[in-house]
TrEMBL record:
<dbReference type="InterPro" id="IPR003593">
    <property type="entry name" value="AAA+_ATPase"/>
</dbReference>
<dbReference type="InterPro" id="IPR047641">
    <property type="entry name" value="ABC_transpr_MalK/UgpC-like"/>
</dbReference>
<keyword id="KW-0547">Nucleotide-binding</keyword>
<keyword id="KW-1003">Cell membrane</keyword>
<dbReference type="GO" id="GO:0015408">
    <property type="term" value="F:ABC-type ferric iron transporter activity"/>
</dbReference>
<dbReference type="GO" id="GO:0016887">
    <property type="term" value="F:ATP hydrolysis activity"/>
</dbReference>
<dbReference type="InterPro" id="IPR017871">
    <property type="entry name" value="ABC_transporter-like_CS"/>
</dbReference>
<dbReference type="GO" id="GO:0005524">
    <property type="term" value="F:ATP binding"/>
</dbReference>
<dbReference type="Pfam" id="PF08402">
    <property type="entry name" value="TOBE_2"/>
</dbReference>
<feature type="domain" description="ABC transporter">
    <location>
        <begin position="11"/>
        <end position="241"/>
    </location>
</feature>
<keyword id="KW-1278">Translocase</keyword>
<keyword id="KW-0067">ATP-binding</keyword>
<dbReference type="GO" id="GO:0055052">
    <property type="term" value="C:ATP-binding cassette (ABC) transporter complex, substrate-binding subunit-containing"/>
</dbReference>
<dbReference type="InterPro" id="IPR015853">
    <property type="entry name" value="ABC_transpr_FbpC"/>
</dbReference>
<dbReference type="InterPro" id="IPR027417">
    <property type="entry name" value="P-loop_NTPase"/>
</dbReference>
<dbReference type="InterPro" id="IPR013611">
    <property type="entry name" value="Transp-assoc_OB_typ2"/>
</dbReference>
<dbReference type="InterPro" id="IPR008995">
    <property type="entry name" value="Mo/tungstate-bd_C_term_dom"/>
</dbReference>
Length: 367
């Protein structure tokens, strides 16, 4: 983990453990978030994202470990501080207040002047297409509308630390992009420290300065979207980001060479170094669909013959399912639309795009 200068840390989780009824939900979580950083927590449902956010907000106490905000240990079960706003996954709106009152309440409590409140709320209501609903009660709103109110309430507070738990999950696609842009604009304008939870890898890539990928209560990797995508720490990370998923194929390291489907593949210097001195072993070879190059004729060395089993035409590109010898299939993305179903094509992989994972530890051999 990269150590960050203490003065630059807004938020820190140190050896945090959370168990419910003796069942560990968060196991040893360490994370440092910089001031003004947009940090995304990404992971499958049930991996502990909401729990982590509730711990940061002070709504729950860790079973072990510390949560430090601006260098100070958060008291266990301390009430969420004025410095923190949170958008809850289940909205948590006040049922007896109108949309406008829901948005206004926290600002009033924090003694924001009336003119300023009105100005902020008018803009937020308009951005989130809620102006026409401002006098309704939450019970009179759809799920997507309630979620927009919850998001608006968090945005209005402009607190130094802003926690968002899947805030766009129930919002229609067009409005979701608009809301996403608005979150980004506000972050740029106000420099808030943001912790944003999502299970959607595209949303994570679009928003995060850095992404912390979680699985089963553990952080798998914390890095920039670019490094997460191109240099994943392990198989889980490689497979969780990217559509269609990265191809994972069985390869062998034999007598200092990489073998795939009976032909040698070149190793990058980094891979050669990581494997130097190691014995023969099976490796998992990862190659993203856009890096599988499809040719009509054998091209380059080595080229693997494959049958075109399926073509999905997305207009902008085609997604191919290709069958290699035996029962190995892989996916490729191509913009070359003269590929025909049930014909033979020839595949090459650029060595710099090949990832290799240790078969037992599932770690990227270069990490
Ligand atoms: P995520 O937000 O990533 O979907 P959560 O943090 O909500 O995951 O939950 C992680 C795990 O902890 C789940 O298995 C969930 O059932 C369990 N869990 C969450 N809250 C409680 C609770 N209050 N009591 C018992 N188990 C809980
Ligand atoms: Mg959740």
């Amino acid at each position: 983990m990269i150590e960050i200068d203490t003065n630059e840390i807004a938020l820190e989780l140190k050896d945090v453990v959370k168990t419910y009824h003796k069942v560990p939900v968060i196991t040893q979580l360490n994370l440092q978030i910089k001031k003004g950083e947009f940090m995304v927590l990404l992971g499958p449902s049930g991996c502990g994202k909401s729990t982590t956010l509730r711990l940061i907000a002070g709504l729950e106490a860790p079973t072990a470990g510390e949560i430090r905000i601006a260098g100070t240990n958060r008291q266990s079960h301390a009430k969420a501080s004025d410095d923190i706003a949170m958008v809850f996954q289940d909205y948590a709106l006040y049922p007896n207040m109108t949309v406008y009152q829901n948005l206004d309440y926290a600002l009033k409590v924090h003694k924001v002047a009336k003119a300023e409140r009105q100005q902020r709320l008018t803009k937020i209501l308009a951005t989130l297409n809620l102006t026409a609903y401002q006098d309704r009660l939450p019970g009179q709103l759809s799920g997507g509308q309630k979620q927009r109110v919850a998001l608006g309430r968090g945005l209005a507070k402009k607190s130094p630390i802003f926690l968002l738990d899947e805030p766009l999950s129930n919002i229609d696609v067009q409005l979701r992009e608009k809301a996403r842009d608005e979150i980004q604009n506000l972050h740029q304008a106000n420099g808030q420290t943001i912790v944003y939870v999502t299970h959607d890898h595209l949303e994570a890539m679009a928003l995060g300065d850095r992404i912390a990928i979680m699985n089963a209560g553990k952080i798998q990797m914390v890095d920039t979207p670019d490094n997460i995508y191109n240099h994943p720490a392990n198989l889980f990370v490689a497979q969780f980001v990217g559509t269609p998923q990265i191809n994972i194929l069985a390869a062998q390291y034999q007598q200092g060479k990489l073998q795939f489907q009976g032909q040698p593949l070149p190793l990058t210097p980094g891979q050669a170094q990581a494997l130097a001195g190691q014995g023969d072993q099976g490796l998992d070879l990862g190659i993203r669909p856009e890096h599988v190059l499809v040719h009509g004729q054998p091209a380059g060395q080595p080229a693997y013959p494959a049958q075109v089993a399926q073509i999905i035409d997305y207009g902008r590109y085609q997604q191919l399912t290709l069958a290699l010898n035996g029962d190995t299939t892989l996916k490729a993305i191509t913009t070359n639309n003269d590929v025909t179903k049930d014909t033979t094509v020839y595949l090459t992989f650029a060595p710099k795009h090949i990832l290799l994972f240790d078969h037992s530890s599932q770690k990227n051999i270069e990490k």
